Amino acid sequence: MEIIETSDFKRAFKKLPKDIQRLYDIQKKRFRENWWDSRLHIKKVRSLPYALSFRITRRYRVFFYFQNTETAIFFEIDHCKDIYR
To answer: What is the model's pTM?
Structure first.
């Protein structure tokens, strides 16, 4: 699975605490190997019909969508209180 991170995603990622960045790397590896891994807790995003999200922790999420069957676009990463506004 190819993962493309948008420039907005990369900017938001740099602002995250270091421990969350490390956990993201673990979850990204799981996503790349098997995006249906239950440890990712993937869900549809109600406000964006084309988007899905997965957990980094209980409070941090990554929003993404599929460009095609082999490419995922990660476009948002943040604390859930900020991301669902």
So the answer is: 0.90
Say which CATH superfamily domain 2-83 falls into. RelE-like (3.30.2310.20)
Could you give the count of Cα atoms lying within 13 Å of 14 in the half-sphere of its Cβ? 6
Distances (CA, A) of 58 to 12, 49, 65: 18, 22, 20
Residue 41's SS3 state is: coil
Identify whether the C-beta of residue 42 lies closer than 8 Å to the C-beta of residue 36: yes
Cα 59 from chain centroid (whole Å) = 12
What confidence tens digit (pLDDT) does each residue in 42-74 have?
A: 999 988 889 999 999 999 999 999 999 999 999
Q: At 73, list the tokens.
A: 């676009």
> Where in the chain are the domains?
2-83
pLDDT digit string, tens, across residues 22-42: 999 999 999 999 999 999 999
